[in-house]
Specification:
This protein has two helices and eleven strands. It has one domain. Strands 1, 2, 3, 4, 5, 6, 7, 8, 9, 10 and 11 form an eleven-stranded antiparallel beta sheet that branches. It is 12% helix and 50% strand. It starts with a helix and ends with a strand.
């Protein structure tokens, strides 16, 4: 027991004396994160994310999705954000794809500022069953597309570029103004 006491004391001292994260850690993380998003307008904030892009050869459809990480910085009255998803015919390729394009089967981006059970107050959508088509606008600009792992009929891709959406108040919501989302990945 006597031999463990000095070890325990030195471990405790190192934990207590360890430097706290610097005040500039969050801006530094934003500069070096592979996926960073901001939203401005009626609600403002910053979030970090991951991007998933996969192509299904059976249906010849690509699904693109932005998932937020746990530590979203929300300010104002924003509660949750779904940065964006898009599904289109064909494989992912370098170029710009508008949510209103004929090849796009579905596109969605949403922000909730109200109290539950409201799912969303602001949205941009195409072909979503609960929202009128062409609510707001969505743009996906792929600057680089690299094939990744393939399993059966599904091919995963690593993509780099930007995603942007203009969200408008949804019918029946008490939201006012609009919100713009921009994600760099």
């Amino acid at each position: 027991m006597r031999t463990r006491l000095p070890l325990l004391a030195s471990l405790l001292a190192s934990l207590l004396l360890a430097p706290a994260p610097a005040a500039g850690a969050e801006p530094e993380r934003a500069r070096h994160s592979p996926c960073t998003g901001i939203y401005t307008g009626s609600a403002r904030g910053v979030f970090w994310c991951t991007v998933v892009a996969q192509h299904d050869a059976r249906t010849n459809r690509t699904t693109f999705r932005i998932d937020t990480e746990d530590d979203i910085q929300l300010n104002g009255d924003a509660l949750t954000i779904t940065p964006g998803t898009m599904e289109w015919a064909g494989a992912p390729a370098v170029g710009v794809l508008q949510g209103s394009a004929a090849s796009v089967a579905a596109a969605w981006s949403a922000l909730r500022t109200g109290v539950p059970p409201t799912e969303a107050d602001y949205g941009a959508a195409r072909a979503a069953p609960r929202v009128a088509p062409d609510q707001g606008s969505i743009t996906l600009d792929l600057a680089r597309v690299e094939p990744g792992p393939k399993a059966a009929d599904t091919q995963v891709f690593t993509v780099h570029g930007t995603f942007s959406a203009r969200l408008l108040p949804l019918p029946g919501a008490k939201a006012v103004g609009d919100v713009r989302i921009t994600v760099r990945f």
